[in-house]
Amino acid sequence: MDIQCVELSGSPREMGRQHGEQFAEPIEQFARLRLEKCVADAAESGVTVTPERVLDLCRSLLSVHEQYAPLVYEEFCGIAEGAGVSLPALMMCNGLTDIRDAVVAQCGTSHRADAGECSAWMVAPEATADGHVLAGQTWDMHRSAEQYVVAFRRRPSDGPPTLGVTTVGCLCLVGINEAGVAVGNNNLKPDDAGVGVMYLAMITHALAQTSLAAAVNAVTLAPRCSGHNYYLAHADGTMVNIETTAKQFKIIDPAGGFYAHTNHYLVPALQARQKDEPSESTLWRLNRLEALLYEHAGRFDPPTMMQIMSDRSGQGDCNICRTDPNDDGATCASIVMSPATGQIWATHGPPNCNRPVEFSLG
After folding, report:
1. What's the gap between Cα 331 and its chain centre?
2. What are φ and ψ of residue 232, in 5° steps?
3. Domain ranges of the chain
4. What is the mean pLDDT of each run of 10 residues along the chain (362 residues)?
5. Counting beta carbons within 10 angstroms of the beta carbon of residue 362, is it exposed (0 to 12), middle (13 to 18) or buried (19 or more)?
6. Which residues contact 86 (CB under 8 A, 6 or more apart)?
7. How many CB atoms are closer than 10 A to CB 258?
8. Contact, 305 vs 123, CB < 8 A?
9. Which CATH architecture has domain 120-360?
C-alpha cells in the first residue's frame, strides 16, 4: 500500500478542519485505540489507571499548548472540530508516548522498556551521491498504527509550506519545509515527565520556522511533557541533534559524514535521567546502523538509505526493520528527507516489502 498524500491550505484552523473532515472516522478509531494502548501500557508498568484519568491529564495539557504555539494549537483544534472528537481525545491520539510517560510518572512507578522503537540518522553533503544532506528514520510503533499512516502537503496562509508524514488526526511527525528545514524524532524515556507540550506540537512549530536556529529554539525553549531525541537538518548541509528530557536538553553537533540515534541517551549528563536501562534492541540497532552507515559512506542516496533501513540481520526486535509477527512493535513507515531538493521518500509499512513513494513540496 502506498502512502496517501493530502493537500491542506488556508489558515491553521481551516487546514485542521480539512484534515479532520477527510479522516473523521479513522481519527475517532485511532484516538480510541491510543487511549486503550495508553491504559494497557500503564498496566504493564504496574500502574492501574482509568481512561477518564488519562483524558483528565490530556485536558490539563491543552492550555500549555495554546500558550506555547497558538497557531499550532489552532490547527489542532480545527482537526478536532472537523473530525467531531474532543480535544482531550485528540491530544491522546497525538501524544501517546509523552502522555504515557506522564501518567506513569504521576504514579511514581518505573515503566518497562519498550521493544524497540525508531532508528534515526543524518548524512552530511560530503558523504552523499549528490552533495545534499539527507535525514530520516524508521517509524516503529504498535503494529495497529500502520493503517493510519498518511502524508500531508500543507500550504498555510502565513508561514512556509511543509511536507510531512504522520498519522490521521495528528500534527506532523517527520517533515520538511520550504525554508529548507527538516525535522524528525525518536523516542526517549526520561524520569521527569509531567504536564507540558507533546512532541508533535514541537515538530509542527519547528517546521513553521524559516531558519534552522529558530527551529532548534522551538524544541529547546518548549515546556516539554517528556523526552524525545530530535534531529534537524538544513538545505545548506547543517545538521543538529537534540536530546531532551522534560526539563533538560543537550545539543549534539554531529561530526563526520553521518550520525545515528536510537532510543537511549548518548549524552552522559542526561543518562542519569533515563527512566529504564537501555534495551538490548536500542543498543543493537545503534551499533548496526552505525556499521551500515560507515560501510556506505560517500555513496548515500535515497535508495541506499531505504536499503539500510530494510536491514533484518538481527533477531526479533533487534532489527532496524521490524517485521517479526512475534514483536510487539513494527516498522510502520520509513522516511528519507532531502531539504535541499524539497523531496521526501516514504514507505507505508516496512521498507523491505513496500516500495517508497516520492513526494515534493512543489
Report:
1. 13
2. -130, 140
3. 5-106, 120-360
4. 95 98 98 96 88 97 98 98 98 96 81 69 97 98 95 97 98 98 97 97 98 98 98 98 98 95 97 91 97 96 98 94 90 98 97 96 90
5. exposed
6. 55, 80
7. 22
8. yes
9. 4-Layer Sandwich (3.60)
